[in-house]
Each structure stands twice: as structure tokens, then as C-alpha cells.
Write a structure and sequence with these properties.
Blueprint lengths: L2 E5 L3 H12 L5 E6 L14 H4 L12 H7 L2 E4 L3 E5 L4 E4 L4 E3 L2 E4 L3 E3 L11 E3 L3 H13 L3 E4 L3 H12 L4 E5 L6 H18 L3 E4 L3 E6 L3 E6 L4 E3 L2 E4 L3 E3 L15 E2 L5 E3 L2 E3 L4 E2 L6 H4 L12 H19 L12 E6 L2 E7 L6 E8 L4 E8 L2 E8 L2 H12 L4 H12 L1
Parallel strand pairs: 1-2, 1-7, 2-3, 7-20, 9-16, 10-11, 10-16, 11-12, 18-21
Antiparallel strand pairs: 4-5, 5-6, 8-17, 13-14, 14-15, 19-20, 22-23, 23-26, 24-25, 25-26
Helix pairs in contact: 1-8
Length: 411
Amino acid sequence: MERIVIVGASLAGLNAAETLRAEGFDGDIEIIGDEPNLPYDRPPLSKQLLTGEWDLERLPLRPDDELAALNLAFRTGTAAQALDLDAKLVRLDDGESTPFDGLIIATGARALSLPFGRDLEGVHTLRSISDAGRIRDDVARGGPLVVIGAGFIGAEVASSATARGLDVTMVEAQSGPMLGPLGSELSEWARGLHADAGVDMRFDTSVSALLGGTRVESVELSDGTRLAADSVVVGIGVRPNVEWLADSGLTIGDGVICDQYCRAAPGVFAAGDVARWPNGLFGPFAYADPQRTMRIEHWTNAVEQGMAAARNLLLESRGQPLEPFSPVPYFWSDQHGLSIMASGLTSPRDQYQLVHGSLKDNRFTALYGLRGYLTGVVSVSWPRMLRRYQSMIRDRTTWTEALETAREIES
């Protein structure tokens, strides 16, 4: 290979490029990004940037001199429009095409919006620097904020806005915040955390309308209630950016479908929020279908998968055995002064056991199990304990063994 193209000037894309250089690739690397910015850090958009702790200058992932040393060609403000696998070309929205010998797809995902109210001023989704800048300006206005969606993004925005002194209402169709990843017990704990911070919460209800003239003035709920709103943040999930690949010949289904090596086709790999692949660590023992795939939308996975995709692209080009990408997923969320950390896979259907600390003290560790194995851990304000069980997930520890270890620690 002499030329590698990375579509996505993202965290995954940049880590892929750095890995290519670290592994000895000295050919051309072009990174294509639809935003005008060079790669920047997204987690602070819903946290430090909204609270005012950070300014925009702290967001770039690497200083200019480090990027220059990598000898990368950035084409920002340009979106990929199509992929021609036979000709090995990425067609761009400016009418040009760029050739490649190897390709890494790291186009990420975009925030979902409501089917109404999008033309009203003060209605936002949060995915980019420009999104965060507009929300930050609205937060500075000081009026009431309605957050639609109580997943991690919605909960973080509610936390950040509350810290700035705003009156915040969080609306969620499910029965509690972050119910999917945390389960009912910890969702109820999170509900109390937000209530104690002054967040008004409306669960088991949906939004039927956003009302106002040129700017949003209120949010109408499915039960007819109207909430005053000077601004609204919609945090109802994301959709992977795969439309440009529709006629490429790649397999697409809620992401780019890859094998265990992050490979979507010969010479084509994917990483980050856009990639869906079978994680061999969990498939054999945790699920009935060993080919079950996952797509992970967290910072750590973007870093690790970007590196893995780059390594496997080089290994394939050298005719060497590829390495399966089988991580233990990890993410964190900062809310109301606490760090909520999770590793592995967790869901409301799993076995659940609080093994250390107490919910009342906001310092605890809880374990999750499925089909006789430890599959996940959530820890609040206790990173050392999280790391201990994270390694046990990697070692495929049984549920019984995990609980026995917890008892030994407590004794």
C-alpha cells in the first residue's frame, strides 16, 4: 500500500492515523472530515464546555506540532458521498474523488432530532462543536431548559445546566434515567441523584409538540402538560453515518457490518461509532447467537478500535494473520459531581447485585451477569474497584466466582 484514506476526522480516525505511523507506514494518509475542524474531543461538549470550565481552545485532540509531525493530509469541510470499491475511489461532495489502496471508515454518528420544531430557535441536538457553542450561548441566557431524553447525553446536559443555575426539566419516555444501560435499581438511584440536584423529571411521557413563534416557548407533553422552555436540547440517540455507503457493496445495518477484525471488505476497515462487529469475548458464552454484533458509541472504544482497524489493515497488506478485536467496553459519565463508570455489557435483563458500598453514599460497585457469567460492572466514585472487575470480565469469570470474590473483598 502507498496511500491510505481515512473517512472521518474523528477520534477513531486520528488514532487510526497515529497507529499507521507508529506501525511503520510511511505512505500517504489523507483524512476526510465533513466538519471544518481538525479532530477534537467530544465528551467535554456536554460537560466542561457547558459548565464554562473549558473554552473551545481546549477541545482539539492534538496540538498543531504533533499533527504536523504525523505528515497527514487533512481535507476538512468535505463530506464523502459514495464509495466505489472496484475503482478504489471515495467520491466527495465537492465533485472530486480521492483514490486509496487501503480505507478506514470512521464517519461516526449523528444525533437524532424530533420530527417537529426543528426550525424554532433554541431547539438543539448535541454532537458537534457548533452544536455545543449554540447550547452554551442559550445556557448563558439563563431561561428554563427542557432536556428531551434521559440517556447519558441528556443526563449530562441536565447536570451541566443545573450547575449553571438554570431551571431544568428532563423528559423521558421510559420509567427512569439511563434505564437501558443501568437497569431499574441504578436507574432509580440516578433519578434520586438528579432530583436532589433540583432537576424536574417527567418520566413515562413523550413530547407531542414544540411551541413558539420564531423561538421555542414551551414543550407540550403527550398528557397535555406544557412546560415553559427558553431552550430545548434533544438527546434521543444517534444514527450511524452510513448513507454514503448505500451503493458501495458493503453490508450495512445500523452501522458498517464488519468481521471480528473490524474488516468490512478486503482493504476496507471500520472503527468507532459507525462500526458493527462480533466481539468474540462475549459471543461464545453470553448470548445464544455467537455471531451477535455490537456497535459502541463511547470514547474508549473509538480509540481502541481505531488502533485495531489500522493494525489489521497493515497486517492484511503484509499477508500476516489479523488480530480479533475483543475489548471489554468501558465508558464514564460525569453527573452532578460524580463519575459513573461502567465496563462490559449491562442491561435491565441481566442478573444484578450490589456488592460494595451503598447507593445512599453515592459510592458503590454493582455487578451484572448473564447466563452464568460476569458480563458487566458499574462503579460510582470507585475506579479501583471497577478495574478489578473489568479484568475479571476479560478473564470470563463465572457469576458465582465473581460473587465469591466480592464476599472475600468485603470480609
